[in-house]
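The methods section describes the discrete structure representation at length, but only in general terms. Each protein is reduced to its one-letter sequence and a matching series of backbone shape codes. I believe one specimen quoted in the main text would settle the matter. An entry of this sort, consisting of the sequence and the corresponding backbone structure tokens, reads as follows.
***
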Amino acid sequence: MVRKHSHNANFEQFLVEKGKLTLAKLKEVNHKIKNSNKTIEQVLLESHISSDELSMLKAEFSGHEFIHVARMPIPQQQIWRYIKLIYVKKHKALPINYENHILTVVIADAEDTMVLEDIKNAYMAQDFLIKKINIVISTPEQINEAIKRFYRATGQEIDIDDVMDQVEEKYRPEIVIADIKQDEVNADSDPIVQLANRIVEEAAKKNASDIHLEPDLNYLRVRYRIDGGLIEVVRIPKYAQDALISRFKIMANLRIDEKRIPQDGRIEFSNNLAIVIRMSTVPMLQGEDVVMRILDTNNPFLAIEKLGFSKEDKLAYISAIKSPYGLVLHVGPTGSGKTTALYAALKYLDTNDTKIVTAENPVEYVLGGKIMQSNINPAAGHTFAAALRAFLRHDPNIILIGEIRDYETAKTAVEASLTGHLVFSTLHTNDAIGTVTRLTEMGIENYMVADSLMCVCAQRLIRKICPSCKESYIITDEELELMKDEIPDSSICYRGKGCKLCDGTGYKGRIGIYEIMRFNSILQNLLIKKASTNELLNAAVENGMKTLRQDAILKALEGITTIEEVLKHTMED
């Protein structure tokens, strides 16, 4: 269904005209390409054309100059230092000169316009004015040799970073181009149906959380979000873009003739595996942008023991949710695991003598048991606040409200928690203390917040070190400086070297880090007195609260994650 990109017939005809291929040899080459799934370049290199000669031919065909970049003296203007070593190694594209607002880049594949656009954007972000990119061609081998010399000159090619870059280059899957004939393109054709199914199946196989279909000027980009990062995997020809998106719309029962407004739908995917997908479309300049969230119905994290709580935090959290009434809030940005943690709490509390009801937008997982779940419908007047008021007439013990967004929902949730109900919900705040400020800014009186709030759980998801390639090392001086004395000198830390299991990244899977703030009489009194944020934070820490940063550092020292992830996902306390 998919194969690596090869030149079209024009380049093949060019080779015939240059006397590099006879018509009989061209037929033999095309036969090998078809049967081996190789590119024309690979087949030619295996026969009688050298790497230098092939690159020269490609340069001539594309109208660009060929240079022997490996023999090139290191320029005094070290313009390449603005692009990360790992990027130029992966894409074989090296900036070598900047003059009169023209950036010269040596590249192995002049058709890789996306790489050139990335490089242009990187330099413009550094306040360079780029009027034109001048492309010159060289072989991948020569570019690799130039990269080693040039980056060594800037002091960037150093031990572990270089090793990790080589591992990344070796293991990360290449981007492939979907091989679809233009006359086979429609939403119901077998190639499009198979392509749509394969995209979903591969995403599930790689444990991706989301599939992104992103329209570009020349193609449709397919990216998977894996362990929090986006990885491009496939490019779809532009002429197949609408057909593929229409295929997914049909699967989600969306209107295929409506491309002017956003649409949301749900796919029950049952081709070889059972997957539920939440699909969203948004119109963009080059076509519809599609994001599909994969909802794993067998989610292994639907248990409190699997969430990543430390022993102390787990005891504090369970103590809070066992309260007969009060307000429990999970806070953090989108994608921080709030819904998963809330579902874990509800599953834990689902007993024979308890009634649990939820209002969600939308219901992501069907929890089963005796938990009654409902979708809100704002267009019909069934909002979070309206659902809450209705629930109070259904004699529940525990209520989950998907999100507190406004004063009405906040006020109703607080009142419900003060009248004998345990209420769970979420807020988009950065930390536990910020939640108190958000509620009061919404208009909830301090004394009501103090009386109702039982626990705030701030959280993030960070990547776990791949167990297959995990290694220990002494923390570096640079890491110590970045950590600002938050970690002892000569500490043993851990990282992943990169392997096939983790696609060379050194990471596999994610785990939560948490900040559990339990409300006791000390914090309640401070709240009623309208104490400052710093006073509340100091009191919470004195009463045993670990910050997100502290929890992440402990996980790094335990070998669960890396110092890199600590710095990436937490702020200095």
